[in-house]
Amino acid sequence: MMTGDTLFNKSIGRTDFIGGSFDEIIKSIKDKIFKYDDNIVIYPGHNSPSTIKSEKLGNPFVN
Questions:
Q1: What is the widest separation between alpha-carbon atoms in the chain?
Q2: Do 59 and 33 contact (CB within 8 A), yes or no?
Q3: Cα 30 from Cα 39, distance rounded (Å)
Q4: Segment 5-21 mean pLDDT
């Protein structure tokens, strides 16, 4: 699954730009990305791939 600049390996996209919202990106990740099976591999726009499970358990921004 391509997550672009929304969800990275142990990080999230920037929300400090005009129109950005920390609350909205977290809601999007939890409601739209984390609904998929834990074994799904994510391919972020930057950094290395990860899995849904790994991000649920180890991403400090969404825990």
A1: 34
A2: no
A3: 16
A4: 97
Q: What's the pTM value of the predicted model, to 2 decimals?
A: 0.92
> pLDDT tens-digit profile of 26-49?
999 999 999 999 999 999 999 999
Is residue 20 one of the residues assigned to a domain? yes
Helix (H, G, I), strand (E, B) or coil at 3: strand
What's the number of domains the chain is made of? Answer: 1
Which residue range forms the structural domain that includes residue 23? 2-58
Structural domain includes residue 63: no
Could you tell me the CA-to-CA distances from 62 to 9, 29, 43, 48 in Å, in that order? 12, 8, 17, 18
Q: What six digits make up the tokens of 57? A: 């358990």
